[in-house]
Each structure stands twice: as C-alpha cells, then as structure tokens.
Amino acid sequence: MDVSQYLEIFIDETKEHLQSLNEQLLILEKEPENDNTINEIFRAAHYLKGMAGTMGYKRMQRLTHDMENVFSEIRNAKMKVSAGLVDVLFQCLDALEGYLETIQETAGEGTNDNEPIITQLNAILNAGTGAQTLKAEEVKQDNAPSQVQDNSKFKPLYRDLTLEPQEKHVISEAFEKGLNVFAFTVYIQETCILKAARAFLVFKGIEDVGETIKSMPSVQDIEDERFDFHFSMYIISKESYKTVLSVIQNVSEIEAVVGEEFTYESIQNLNKKQSETSEQTQEAYETSEKESNVSAENMKTPQSSQKAQTNNNAKAGAQKPVVNRTVRVDIEKLDVLMNLVSELIIAKNGLVSVSSSETGENTQGFHEQIEYLERVTTNLHESVMKTRMVPIESVVNRFPRMIRDLNKKLNKKMELYMTGEDTELDRTVIDEIGDPLMHLLRNSADHGLEPTEARIQRGKPEVGSIFLDAYQEGNNVIIEVRDDGNGIDVNAVRNKAIERGTITADQAESMSDKDIIDLLFLPSFSTAKTVSDVSGRGVGLDVVKSKIEALGGDVEVKSKLGEGSVWTIRLPLTLAIIQALMVELGDEKYAIALGSIQTIEDISVHDIKYVEAKEVIHIRETVIPLIRLDKVLGIVKDEEQPENLTVVIVKKGEKLAGLVVDNLMGQQEIVIKSLGKYINIDKVISGATILGDGEIALILDVNTLV
Amino acid sequence: MEENKVEYNQVQYIVVKIGNEQYGIDISYVDNIVRMQKIIRVPKAQHYFKGVINLRGVIVPVMSIRLKMQLEDDKFTNSSRIIILKMDQALIGIIVDEVKEVVTLENTDIEKMAYDSKEDRTSYINGIGKHAGELISLLDINSVITEKELV
C-alpha cells in the first residue's frame, strides 16, 4: 500500500482548492457578510483538511483544521470577518502553498510547523468567540468520559493472536537485548474510506520506532484491504510504550488504540492462559484512558518520530521532483483525436484497396484518397496541437491576490481588471510567461500608478486601475498590461541615459520618444536602481524582454505622460508549427513566418533611395529600409541585377523592413525543427523545416533581421 | 559494443579513405552510413560545416573533415559517403571519400599517439592501427566533432 499513486491527484486538486480559496477570500474581503462565500471557503478548507489527512500530511492537516474551525464559527454567526482575519487567512494560504511546493519536490511536507500562523488563528478564534470556547471545553469534557466508555467495545484483540515458536524466540531475544515488546489493537473509524491507507501509515510510523513482528490480519491482507475496521500487532521497539502509542495515534481517523506493554513473564503466560485475561484487560483499559491525555499532548508537540518519517520521505524523493509535468486535456479534445485516428485508418485502407485494384488507368481514385489523407493529417495535427493548449487563466488567476497584497504593501489603492482569461496558449509558453507578466504588473503597480494623494490632486479617480487583457490576433496571442498611472517620463529617461553614457546628447537629439522608451529594456539600464526621477522604472525589464523573445515573441511599450502606459506582449500561438511564406534566394529556399509579414511589393530598382548610404524604399508614405537577404546570408549570385525586385515587407512591432528575395514560392504550414547542437548557427536562422519533397528549408528569424 | 571493448581488448573500426590516408572510426559511434545527398548550406555556420541533410525526417548537420583538417575541399564522387555519428543523443554527419571495410583491432595492434606531435591536425587522431600491413589513423571522434578551433 502506497499513497504515492494518489500524489498527483492530490497536488492537482489541492492547487485547485487553494486557487478557489484565494479567489473566495478576495470576495470575502469585499463582502464580509457573503454567506455563499463563507460556505465555499469552509468547504474548501474542509476538503483540503480531508485530503491532507488522507495523504498523511499532518502539518497541512492541522493548519487547515484550524482554518476550518474559524470558518465554522463564522458560518454559525458566532464571529465576524475582520480585515485582520483575512490577512491571517492569506498567510495560511501562503503557508499551504509552501507545503504543496515541498510536497511536489520531495513527496514530504517538510518540517515547517507555521506555528505563528496557527497561534494567530487560534487567538482570533478565541477573541472572536470568547464565551463559546468555555462551552466548547465543557462539551469536550463531556465527551471525554463517554469516549472511555466507548472503549469498552474496543477489545484487546491482540490476545487472540497465537505466537509461533520462532516469533516467541524473537521476542525473548528482544528482551535479552533490553528492547520493549508491545501489542496493540488499532480501531479505525468506520467512516474511513481508505482504511488500508490508514493501516499503511500506522505500519510506516511504527517502522521508524521499532519493528512489527506479527500482525493480524497479515500485512499483505491489510494492504489489500482484507480486514474489518481493526487490526492487531506485536511490536519490538526500544522506544517507550507512550512513544509508540502516540505514533499510532498520530495517524488520523483512528478511533482507538488498545495496547499493553509486555514483560518477559507476561508474554509467557499469555499463550498459556488466553482465557484468563480479565486482569490484563483491566490494565489495557487503563492505558486507553491515558490515551486521551497523550493525544492532547501530541497535538502540541510534534513527534520526533514523525519528523523522522517525513525526513525519510524527503530523502527518498530528493533525486527528482516527484510529479511529472502534465497537461489536463479536455475529454472532448481527446475524442476528436480518436476520431481522426480512425479516419486515418480508413484512409489507409482506402489506399490499400486502390493500389490492389489499380489497373493503371484509374489514378483518380488514388488522388482522391491522397487528398482525404491530407485532410485527415492536417486535422490531426491541429487537434494534437490543441491538446497542448492551456488557457492563460492558469497563470493569471494568481494576480488579483498579488495586486491585493501590493495594495497593502505600497499603500496605494488599485484594482486589477482582467479580460480574456480563456485565451489559450501552448503549454511551454504558459509555463514561462508567468514571471514576465508578474513583473510588468508589479511595475505598473509600483512605478506606474501615482500615490493616492497625487492621484486626487490630478483629478484622477482615487483608486488606480491596472488592466490585463489577453486576446488572439491571427497567429499571435496579445497580452496587454495597462495602467492609468503617470506614464513614462521620456525626458527623465533621456537625461538619465545621457548621464549614464548609454547614449550621447547628439544621439538623444535624433532619437524619437519611442526609441528613448525602448532604452528601458537595455540591461545596463535595468540593473541601476538609481533612476530616481522615474522611480526606478526599468528594473528587470531586460529580463522580461529576453524571456519573451526566447519564446519567439516581443514586447512593446507605449506611454503617455500623465495618462498611463500600455505594455504589449505578442506571443506565437504555438512554438512547433507555423504558417510560413516560402521564398527562393539563388537556389536556396527559406521560410519566413507569415505572422510577421505585412505585404509583398514589386519594386523597380529605380525606386530605391538612399538614406545614410543605406537602401530604403518609400511606399505609401512610409520609408522602409531594404535588407538584401542574399548579402546577409552570403549567397553567391553572378546574374545581373534585375529591373524589378520582389520585396517582402515584414513587421516587428512598429518597425518595418523590406526583405529582397528572388522568388516567391507560396504559403505553407511548416514544422520547426532544430539544427542540432554541433553546428553554430547565426541568430538569423531560427531553425529548419522539411518540405514535402524531403528538401530542407531554413527558417529566417525576422526579429533579428529587422 | 562498449562491453566488447572492455572484455576482449579489441575494437571494431570502420576504415574510410580521406585523401591518401586511411582513417578508422570507432564503430560504436557510427549510427549510419548514407550516400552523398543534397546538402543544404547553412549561412554563417562554421566554415567546415557543409550544411544540413534530411535523414528520414531528422535534420543532421554535416561537416567536412577535409576542411576541418585544413585539407583541400571535398570532391564528391560516386564513392563519397556521409557517416552519421551519434554523440550524446545528437547526430552529426562527416563526409569521407570512400568507405572501405570494417576491421577488428586488438589492443596490441594499436600504437598510441604521442601528443607532442608538431603538426596540429594530428591531434584529431588518438592512435595508429596496424592491419594487414597497412596503417590506419584512428580518429578521435570527440576532438573532431567538438568546437575547439585549432590555431
């Protein structure tokens, strides 16, 4: 019996519950009286507690238990939600996330007890309920005797165990070594769903303090859940009876433990006089009475043995994270895939029958089948790609919470508005996009929005707004981070840049505002926190930029002083397949991503003008620099320059450039492949693809060309 | 293959011809041998990389041993072959003039190279094998493939 098989489900579900707790708490903060929300939180906390308990994560369980207590009081209208409480609850969530992270890496929950948070929770609970706690204690006391009475139905069944000669031998050897011998019968609550898991945890706990020499039913039967709600065993341990007992009691959903410590004599007697047990029974009952005290102690002091257990877990999982990267796939998407695969088989069969019946003249049937096959493979491709798509929600849903915290930390009032959370992106992109987005949001909150007083002075709404919008645009996904803050002070940036020697004063003259703002993305700029006039703007923006560019996207900023800024992130929908325009240069073939192509123009050589000795063309009121691809790529051509040039106008953000090519070959969907690690390729080539005829075409990276 | 080497102290080599010399390539590195095919030039790559080829859907870079060893450029003939080597899961092709045979060399047939040799290009070789009265220069695949440009 091993709980690790449930670990992935546990982690997934815990994440979901934590997320929903986060969201509900945010609502609760605004509407402290919202019953639905309170119920929802209570349920989530309860569920988390149950799951953590099932998996044997004691610390998590304890924390969620206390949270649940608080909410149970609130639900019963004995307590009111206060701002302080919400703060503590958020801390709880952070602590739980911490546990989850540790579990994800090591399969153990770590050793952090988060005692301060629990103390705070309890303090709030006590303060809030005051009188009720007394009552509760009374109730507890009422319960205590009844528990003892209940114990009478928990018989020391271990007495029915007959020890085999060799087991007796082991026991007497143990006595010789000065070890203790105990016997226990463990009763599991009848409501327990995973009793085998419980039993497993009991045995696992005992493993750390001693050795089980005999159990009834056998360990194998217990693992297979072939037992009622109780099991008995003999244990050899060098620990005291109390320690071993508390180890067992530490496992949740255990109703009662009956046990006793044996002396050499008593064990000898046991088998002989199994009928005369009344005296010993009495003794056993006494121990179980003690048990309630012991368990109370356990609650306070974490058991060393348990620590040992978690440590063991940590060791076992230390080599690699225990959870694989997974994608949750909508079952409908899988159904589509399934259908496509069956169509593929049909198409194959069609081809087989055509080829066997082929007499030479009927090529039409053959072509039909090929077309069918083509359609199926295209759809199949698309569907497989779709299974890799994850809504951006999974990244952005933690931001409201972050903004709330920043609210308190920066002492500014602000609100985050999000749209388009259901926009889907490739899983690999989703994994990487979180940090850059967070950075931009923090940037907006910290440096973009003015302090509240300044906002009032300027006649802006007191509460600052930050917008996060995601939407799809062609083959790209656009994510915009907007704020209605002060915007970027271009002059301050320019002066700073000159002061720092990034640009000269002359250069600054000729640079547009946009160029100046782009300086913020330079690493040299970002590392300096001294850009005081613009309140440190630019810190880490180069990281944002490089990360997004690594994903094949780009980032842009537009800003209006006094009105706010817009950061626009443009990301490719997927990394593996793109629509591309195939072009010919000399006798080589290259692919240009369709997403970056603006137009294709036919230009006469006479229309080429020169600016700073560089070739440009002037069409539709824009001056576009020309890039001679053959020169950039070192293609040798001996033919004369033709009268007319084919120019592919590409766009990178706001910048345009004209790529001169020899021939256009048409549009094609291409699969991007890497060139392998041994060959050093220039950044200009972003990969290669294999064409229909098996030939290779290299893919040009427009972003580095422009 | 690795095991064989240890157990029997013998290694199998593919004997190829580059120029007038015979070279031996440890067979455990060899994934495949293919005929000459169209090599797509990759702009701005190292000069000794001829480009890439499509090997059953995998794009494999192809280098010219001749250029790397500062010999004259390859002249592709009917007997030219590309030997596909597998290193750390990555494939790389090298062009040879001719593939002759596979020989098994005992440890005793191999004379280790002294590394203080004056000529630079000899450091692509880690030994000389003697087989049937002929000499075979044994290529040190690692140093052939890795980046280190010799001065």
From TrEMBL, chain A:
Modified residues (Phosphohistidine): 46
Gene Ontology CC terms, in alphabetical order: cytoplasm
Protein name, as recorded: Chemotaxis protein CheA
Native source species: Candidatus Galacturonatibacter soehngenii
Catalytic EC class: transferase
GO BP terms, alphabetized: chemotaxis
Compositional bias annotation for Polar residues: 273-285, 293-314
Pfam families xrefs: CheW (PF01584), H-kinase_dim (PF02895), HATPase_c (PF02518), Hpt (PF01627), P2 (PF07194)
InterPro entries reported for this sequence: Bact_Chemotaxis_CheA (IPR051315), CheA-like_dim (IPR004105), CheA-like_homodim_sf (IPR037006), CheA-like_P2_sf (IPR037052), CheA_P2-bd (IPR010808), CheW-like_dom_sf (IPR036061), CheW-lke_dom (IPR002545), CheY-binding_CheA (IPR035891)
Enzyme nomenclature, EC number: 2.7.13.3
SUPFAM superfamilies noted in UniProt: ATPase domain of HSP90 chaperone/DNA topoisomerase II/histidine kinase, CheW-like, CheY-binding domain of CheA, Histidine-containing phosphotransfer domain, HPT domain, Homodimeric domain of signal transducing histidine kinase
From TrEMBL, chain B:
Any one Pfam family match given in the protein's UniProt record, by short name: CheW
Top-level taxonomic group: Bacteria
Signal peptide (from-to): none
Gene3D superfamilies, per the entry: CheA-289, Domain 4, SH3 Domains
Domain CheW-like: 10-150
GO cellular component: cytosol
Annotated SUPFAM superfamilies: CheW-like (SSF50341)
BP term (GO), one: signal transduction
Protein name: Purine-binding chemotaxis protein CheW
Organism of provenance: Candidatus Galacturonatibacter soehngenii
